[in-house]
Specification:
Pfam families: GCV_H. The protein is α+β, with helices and mostly antiparallel strands. The protein has four helices and twelve strands. It is globular, with a radius of gyration of 15 Å.
Amino acid sequence: MDDMQEYDPFDDANGFEDVAEDGDMYTANLNTQEAAAQVDIPAHLLYSEEHVWVDDSVDPVVCGVTAFASEQLGELVFIDFPEIGTHVEVGDELAQLESSKSVSPLISPVAGTVRYVNHEAYDDPSVVDSDPYGEGWLVKIELDEDPELLSADEYAKIVAKAQ
């Protein structure tokens, strides 16, 4: 891990052609030099500008990395999770994601106490790449207060503008 550079993989993000709403999912069509890809943004989740999703329909809330972030990071090879019981504030480093491209911090979109970490993702980080909104969740946090996050529509617009 020492030979990996830490950087923000989203600084080099490519532009998007458009954003389309289809029922419960927003889809941003990524226009890359190599190939076109679609990035799904589930409508029932909330999002941070740091590309972390939050499911606030359950208690504790579930957090994970968005499909856009997963695409930008590349294949995950290791996740350094916080200890259960760790208290985090909005903007704190919640975890470290080591990919084939970089080591990047996962920035907490909420304030609260970490109650669960996804041991399956720890054992096999590729689950985050293959199913970022499902089996690839990262942590469950007991909130201190209601978070101020983006709707799927607001997040889709941010992703569409990323260049």
